[in-house]
């Protein structure tokens, strides 16, 4: 599993590493990007597909998925974020973009991919497929035949596909997509996500035969030692991100 004990993350404010490029934040996501690339070897004409979920709402999964996508885009890769949280979507808010047309429209046949694919302003190589209008049947849409067709098209267009999904212990939506991606990252929150809740999330994913890449443990407080104090003082940060 991934581990980096000296990195920050900004949560719950829709901030990104573009808006607040703190050194430790940026380095944390670079480390995560590297680990993902090693975990999912490159194949010619095939995109890396990574799904992000969490045990509970508010654990920071969308913040992590958005910033991971930005980091891949900064490495000269064509990246698309697919907001598959069709219940409480927030990905579009990070970029002040519209969510009126998006994934739900594509999967229900109301919109084309071209109508829903948005260029993220200020971030070269990054695109967004927002949630679209919230449907009454999210689980059914995400398990339908149009999902495979969409991913096939996206693989022809992009190098990396980042999929943001609802918490896996709350609804089963993420489980419908597990077999359509190369790997899953579970986001857990310090002093919020309990160990039994994390165990339940992992158990659910394993039941769906998901390839779990690791657990991103965020909002962890910095460990200050005599040797490391000067680095913590230099970075002037309040929170740490652990990639477990």
The neighbouring-strand order within the major sheet is 3-4-2-5-1-6-7-8
DSSP, total strands? 8
Q: Could you tell me the mean pLDDT?
A: 84
State the helicity in percent bands. 25-40%
**Which residues form runs of ≥5 with pLDDT under 50?**
1-13, 224-244
The largest pleated sheet is described as: 8 strands, mixed
Description:
This protein is α/β, with parallel strands linked by helices and 244 residues long. It has a domain at 47-215: Rossmann fold. The chain has helices spanning 23-39, 61-74, 103-107, 113-116, 138-142, 145-157, 173-177, 195-207, 229-235; strands at 48-54, 79-83, 117-119, 126-129, 160-164, 183-189, 212-220, 240-243. An eight-stranded mixed β-sheet has the order 3-4-2-5-1-6-7-8, with helices on both faces. α1 (23-39) crosses α2.
State the main characteristics:
244 residues; alpha/beta; Rossmann fold; eight-stranded mixed sheet; 9 helices; globular; disordered N terminus
Write a compact overview of the structure shown.
With 244 residues, the chain is of the alpha/beta class.
Secondary structure topology:
Elements: H1 23-39, E1 48-54, H2 61-74, E2 79-83, H3 103-107, H4 113-116, E3 117-119, E4 126-129, H5 138-142, H6 145-157, E5 160-164, H7 173-177, E6 183-189, H8 195-207, E7 212-220, H9 229-235, E8 240-243
Parallel strand pairs: 1-5, 1-6, 2-4, 2-5, 6-7
Antiparallel strand pairs: 3-4, 7-8
